[in-house]
Sequence to fold (94 residues):
Amino acid sequence: MKNALFNGTVMPGGEAFDAWANQPLLLSLEAGGIDWPSSCRNGTCRTCFSKLDAGQVRYECDWPGLSAEEKAEGYVLPCVAHPCSNVSLHFEGF
Ligand code: FES
Fold:
């Protein structure tokens, strides 16, 4: 499958990063020089917890550490979330 490249934006600062479909957003953020909080990097600790202001993601693990309500409200775990579109997210943790 072709590795799609989407535009990632971090709010509220508006920093841009390349969001590749075949890797978690956390790796793309780091590759873009954006310092994003993380710990477990496997979707359980919620250190990277953030909210999608725009866009869609998918998960390769069956059930990342998010409730159904959180998912419905647009919260994501960038360490395991892969972008399916251009994404805009802001950090919600701590
Ligand atoms: S770094 Fe632990 S859930 Fe993302």
